[in-house]
Amino acid sequence: MTLIKSISGIRGTIGGAVGENLTPIDAVKFAAAYGTFLKKHTPKTALKVVIGRDARISGPMIHQLVVNTLVGLGIDVIDLGLSTTPTVEIAVPLEQADGGIILTASHNPKQWNALKLLNAKGEFLSGADGAAILEIAEAAAFDFADVDALGTVTENDAYMDIHIDEVLQLPLVDAEKVAQRKFKVVVDGVNSSGGIIIPKLLEQMGVEVVRLYCTPNGHFPHNPEPLKEHLGDICQKVIEEQADFGIVVDPDVDRLAFITNEGEMFGEEYTLVAVADYVLSKTPGNTVSNMSSSRALRDVTEFHNGSYQASAVGEVNVVELMKATQAIIGGEGNGGIIYPELHYGRDALVGVALFLTHLAGLEQTVAELRAGLPAYFMSKNKIELTPQIDVDGVMAEIAKRYANEPLSTIDGVKIDFPTEWVHLRKSNTEPIIRIYTEAPSQAAADALASRFVNELKSIAGV
């Protein structure tokens, strides 16, 4: 069982001992720390926070604890109930709130939950703010409101519809053009809130929807991370239904993966690449992704005469670099699309709408569209961390060994070989070291990954 405290929030498994898992005590402590931080740093007496959750089983319990902790601090709550991460991000500025909390462990299995913390812009907190909240939590320096100053709770279940409306109003989204194509799409909502909001969006764009695992009961029918090894059911369903393609989202709907009309993975790395290709063709500009993401985005950006840059892993880092470079689209290779025209956050809805509009303007199948993009192949591996592994020491030794290669230590160690690359880093959300590689063929990517897995294990002595 695990509790991970990071600058982006608190994440852990349900049950077990306090301080070692995400127990009710821990949920209250970190909600109180966040509320206390807002009270200290917001020059207002009446504060307001937006809260939403995904459909995981522990959601209602954690939700009640967090809401009432904020109420106890004298903070008003706008309660969206069952929602998505990007929906909450959009709601915060629209409600003129002082922050937001999304209760979701994103792609983690059902035993996990988390508090993901937002600022008044509806964006993830900076590293400095996140660190300050962890300090407040450690000190347990909370000052709760007296009975006449308790916060209030206002329920608002309209925001999923508002989110859809905001997406459909984007200039590069053309629902009428999409409707004319009469697309048929299979949706795997992994029995969370994506099973509600994605079909709604599609139907408003005139798409016929085949629902697969779209009952928001939190019983994930497969590992919720949208990777090839977890998605056999939808691949088969696309073939059976003779659908144009399939859509897969994670439980909080900030990651997006496609299945081609041939029942094959489009590749989560290529979600952003395909959508960026469309956006750049209409509005040329710069792009950003993190350094664990495919070189294909760089290639597509340069084809459209834009500039590409890579950030450290983490949405807040991508957003910071996007703002600095005035990027018009960016995101992460895990299927996370950030389109500032709507908001600075990963958003599967905007990805779906832009992809559909792109496809509607082509005389191609999804498989043909994928074949026309730059060809790279990735291998994603991980090593479970144990107490005896000195991660910093291991990374330093790798950097020393490859000092003569183009190398970055901004976030772990990334080595750029002439035709391939490897990125080694400690995960922010799981007790693992991630090993990502990319090469011109799958065999080469797998071989490079195997080589570095063995080298890491050898250095670590495991």
UniProtKB/TrEMBL annotation:
Its cofactor is Mg(2+). Keywords: Isomerase, Magnesium, Metal-binding, Phosphoprotein. GO terms for biological process: carbohydrate metabolic process; peptidoglycan biosynthetic process; UDP-N-acetylglucosamine biosynthetic process. One of its GO terms (molecular function) is phosphomannomutase activity. SUPFAM superfamilies: Phosphoglucomutase, C-terminal domain (SSF55957), Phosphoglucomutase, first 3 domains (SSF53738). Residues 395-454 form the Alpha-D-phosphohexomutase C-terminal domain. One of its GO terms (cellular component) is cytosol. Residues 8-141, 165-263, 270-373 form the Alpha-D-phosphohexomutase alpha/beta/alpha domain. PANTHER family: PHOSPHOGLUCOMUTASE (ALPHA-D-GLUCOSE-1,6-BISPHOSPHATE-DEPENDENT), PHOSPHOHEXOSE MUTASE. Belongs to the phosphohexose mutase family. This is Phosphomannomutase. The lineage of its organism: Bacteria, Pseudomonadati, Bacteroidota, Flavobacteriia, Flavobacteriales.
